[in-house]
């Protein structure tokens, strides 16, 4: 089973990777972009050395950027390795999906070829996955468009943990190489477009000479490009689109000229589009395709003047980022959900629970009239007092504009109609014996089925999470004390029926502890309270009765 701390490690890695990718898009020039790529390997991926080898027009690869060791940087930056030697390297060793790993047992034959390299001596590995100083790991970068046009190669060395990267590290390096290739291609494209725009601003003769260059860059750009009107009644209307944008949106150019981006954007993203400044604005949003689906794109605007005093136009660069968004959502889901059951994990449970809690002590209550006074700002601003005479800031974190809905726990002694956020802590009875008798495979199957049964018994807005091991937690809002007790009975009865595993029927019981979330408590206090109630309930039932549910 997956270690409980692994989601936190993955979340931290995802954040570092996200920051490294974000830094790629802030570089102002191609040189800055290349150095950002090398720096991101060291800062975001956990390697001590990172090198960017870029394909030159003649096909050979030059060391364009290096990070992690100033001495090595000054020694090999700018040196060139032949294409033949690089192709040899990329065909050796082990293929890790899109990566190429050459262990030191095979890589010694490369010590004398013409590829610039930096390595240090070291002892033989003590265990199988230990990194050796002569191990080599390469991440090829390919130009956008889905082809195999090699753009360059990232070479990394010396992982900080001293081990060869696992599946998660390999996936992160491969994703980073893909994003680095896009950033380098975009940096080149931006440089070409900026040069074209400078030529457009020159005198008439230079302007005519540059029109063909601009047309070529526009028409044959690998990413979508559009020219739109700026200002007036037709502001934003598309005047011209390239073939890449037509293919991206599945619409011919004649049809696209009837629209503006505001007509094509997803309704939920219209605010993002409107907030995007025309003066070099940038946004990530969804555009509608002809088949009714929506595609995630990165939209970047530049202002172009047709003549010195003539009308201005918007030159818009549209880049397909659907795969990146899908990967981000996939990584976010993996970091916040249990790999076995698919339920929210412990970190996600605490996040959802913390979103409902505030620091307001649960002992501080207000009447319905006082709550309305606070919501509508019935405060004497000149004296800092409310209309009822109490100080407005008497309770930290609570003010006249506090719209947080405070939650309280129902009275356990009497049913006064109060509804609260119930926290049901579930611990399976008899699960350990299944693991011991039939193995972890059977135990995993039981956990998956229990997760399914719990999910089918709750409402759409409720949360079923796996805390770890055989412990589950259910968050159900808007329940009274009797409602929560009834829910616990329904959940227990759903778990009791036999579970078929590998042709045999096994049974587990369940003990439930009902706690209540209340403002003024921390997430840990809420879960500890429900956990303690569960143990009280478990001890109050005989061992045989616990197994029967």
From TrEMBL:
EC code(s) of this entry: 2.7.7.65
- The PAS domain, residue ranges: 210-269
Q: Do you know which Pfam families this protein is assigned to?
A: GGDEF (PF00990), PAS_9 (PF13426)
Positions of the GGDEF domain: 419-549
Write the record's keywords in alphabetical order, separated by commas. Answer: Coiled coil, Nucleotidyltransferase, Transferase
Annotated coiled-coil segments of the chain? 186-213
GO terms for molecular function, please? diguanylate cyclase activity
Protein name listed in UniProt:
Diguanylate cyclase CdgB
Query: What species is this protein from?
Result: Streptomyces argenteolus
Output the lineage of the source organism.
Bacteria, Bacillati, Actinomycetota, Actinomycetes, Kitasatosporales
């Amino acid at each position: 089973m997956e270690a409980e701390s692994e989601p936190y490690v993955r979340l931290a890695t995802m954040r570092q990777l996200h920051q490294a990718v974000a830094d790629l898009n802030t570089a102002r020039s191609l040189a800055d972009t290349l150095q950002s790529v090398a720096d991101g390997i060291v800062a975001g991926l956990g390697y001590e050395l990172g090198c960017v080898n870029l394909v030159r027009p003649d096909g050979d690869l030059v060391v364009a950027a290096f990070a992690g060791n100033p001495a090595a940087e000054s020694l090999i930056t700018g040196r060139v390795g032949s294409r033949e030697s690089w192709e040899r390297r990329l065909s050796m060793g082990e293929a890790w999906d899109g990566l190429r790993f050459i262990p030191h047992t095979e890589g010694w034959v490369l010590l004398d070829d013409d590829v610039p390299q930096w390595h240090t001596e070291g002892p033989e590995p003590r265990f199988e996955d230990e990194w050796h100083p002569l191990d080599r790991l390469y991440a090829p970068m390919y130009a956008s468009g889905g082809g195999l046009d090699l753009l360059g190669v990232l070479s990394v060395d010396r992982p900080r943990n001293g081990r060869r990267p696992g599946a998660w590290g390999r996936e992160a390096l491969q994703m980073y190489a893909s994003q680095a290739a896009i950033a380098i291609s975009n940096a080149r494209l931006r440089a070409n477009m900026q040069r074209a725009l400078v030529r457009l601003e020159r005198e008439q003769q230079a302007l005519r000479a540059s029109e063909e260059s601009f047309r070529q860059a526009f028409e044959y750009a690998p990413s979508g490009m559009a020219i739109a009107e700026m200002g007036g009644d037709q502001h934003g209307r598309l005047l011209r689109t390239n073939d890449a944008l037509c293919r991206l949106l599945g619409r011919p150019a004649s049809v696209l000229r009837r629209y503006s981006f505001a007509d094509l954007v997803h309704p939920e993203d219209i605010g993002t589009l409107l907030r995007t400044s025309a003066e070099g604005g940038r946004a990530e949003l969804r555009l509608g395709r002809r088949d009714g689906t929506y595609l995630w794109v990165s939209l970047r605007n530049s202002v172009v003047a047709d003549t010195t005093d003539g009308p201005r136009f918007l030159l818009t660069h549209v880049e397909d980022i659907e795969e990146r968004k899908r990967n981000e959502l996939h990584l976010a889901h993996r970091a916040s959900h249990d790999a076995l059951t698919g339920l929210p994990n412990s970190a996600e449970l605490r996040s959802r629970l913390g979103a409902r809690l505030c620091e307001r002590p649960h002992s501080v209550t207000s009447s319905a009239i006082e709550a309305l006074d606070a919501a509508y700002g019935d405060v004497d601003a000149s004296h800092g007092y409310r209309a009822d005479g109490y100080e407005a800031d008497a309770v930290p974190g609570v003010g006249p504009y506090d719209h947080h809905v405070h939650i309280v726990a129902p009275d356990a002694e009497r049913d006064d109609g109060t509804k609260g956020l119930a926290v049901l802590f579930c611990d399976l009875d008899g699960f350990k014996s299944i693991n011991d008798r039939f193995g972890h495979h059977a135990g995993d199957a039981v956990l998956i089925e229990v997760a399914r049964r719990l999910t089918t018994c709750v409402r759409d807005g409720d949360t079923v999470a796996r805390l770890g091991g055989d412990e589950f937690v259910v968050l159900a809002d808007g329940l009274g004390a009797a409602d929560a007790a009834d829910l616990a009975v329904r959940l227990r009865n759903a778990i009791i029926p036999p579970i078929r595993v590998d042709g045999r029927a096994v049974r587990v019981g369940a003990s439930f502890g009902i706690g209540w979330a209340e403002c003024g408590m921390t997430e840990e206090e809420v879960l500890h309270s429900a956990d303690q109630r569960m143990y009280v309930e478990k001890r109050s039932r005989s061992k045989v009765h616990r197994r029967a549910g």
